[in-house]
Amino acid sequence: MSQQKENPYPYSDTNKRYQTFDYYTRQRFGGKCAKVTLDIGCTCPNKDGTRGKGGCIYCKDGSRSAIGEGIGVQYENGIAVAGRKWKVVGYIPYFQSGTNTYGDISALRQAFFTAAGLPGAVMLGIGTRADCLGEEILELLAETAEKIPVMVELGLQSVHDRTAERINRGHSFVDFLDGYDRLYHLARQLSPDAKPGYGKLSVGIHLINGLPGETEEDMLASASVTASLRPDMVKIHLLHVLRDTALAGWYGSGAYTPMEKEAYTHLVCRQLRLLPPETIIGRITGDGMADDLLAPQWSRRKTEIANAIDKEMYARKWAQGDLVSDGMKLD
Ligand code: SF4
């Protein structure tokens, strides 16, 4: 029997034993949807001195070449590229660079409402920090979510405060929970009967594996605690060492060693087992800037990483969430 036919995992119509973002968009919007990244020039409280200076040790803004170009121009350029690669039914304008709920509220309102009205847009993605979700911002997110579905993606990275301090994250886990709870409550208020990821407003959490000083147990604990928060989506990243970041200095001096591929893929399989079956898995590896990537070089081979995860999940008869009903215990 083929891996696909043998697959017992319910939120998949392929051999994938976890709910891919692609599966989710096909179910929700009737076909593949492409993300189009937008840069509205938001900075970050962890850089401008409000919460910290210098930012997270791995953070790199990239060229930010799109700043100054209108959202419409960025979007047109993005869909032209995506349209050449895939046959899609819609696009997801994604506010990715910087902290996209941090800044002048009327400028943010204009940006979100403009994006909501872009031709072909089916959903918005908004990347931000949980400590940038004040009442005005929550009201704006609720207003935007009445126009178009919105997925707010919060960087958590690790639940361990000692790691947050080591990477200069600029907020603690308690800070994260405060913003997360208010956003999650709002999302459930707006769509009380929606299944995860299908409401007007959805909440995603980002985790990073391979943060300095973390053990496998630490990373499994981050996945387990994240699972208990029941987000609509989880993105699992691999820590990338990018040129001209503080982390690059640590890497150059031998103070930081990136994860090996086999350790990473095995860890992700175990994390997937801990996450609720209905949670959308937005990503299972990093998305570094190719030109700036110093290490690990194996992370460039994304298909190989995904295949290794699929192969291990199949060989061990594992599936996303298969430990959840069993008290989330690890083997
Ligand atoms: S919170 Fe995000 S934008 Fe801010 S410093 Fe960290 S990685 Fe960079």
The radius of gyration computed from the alpha-carbon positions, rounded to a whole number of angstroms, is 19 Å
The ligands found in this model are:
iron/sulfur cluster
CATH class: Alpha Beta
In helices, the fraction of residues equals 25-40%
CATH superfamily: Aldolase class I
- Return the average pLDDT rounded to an integer: 94
Strand order of the largest sheet: 1-2-3-4-5-6-8
Q: Which architecture does the CATH hierarchy give at level 2?
A: Alpha-Beta Barrel
User: Got a strand count?
Assistant: 9
The proportion of strand residues reads: 5-15%
Low-confidence stretches: 326-331
Shape: globular
Largest sheet: 7 strands, parallel
How many structural domains can be distinguished in the coordinates? 1
Question: DSSP helix count?
Answer: 10
Q: CATH topology, which one? A: TIM Barrel
Question: What is the N-to-C succession of helices and strands?
Answer: HEHEHEHEHHEHEEHHEEH
Structural class: alpha/beta
What is the first-to-last residue Cα distance?
Answer: 27 Å
List key phrases describing it.
331 residues, alpha/beta, TIM Barrel, seven-stranded parallel sheet, two-stranded antiparallel ribbon, 10 helices, 9 strands, globular, binds iron/sulfur cluster
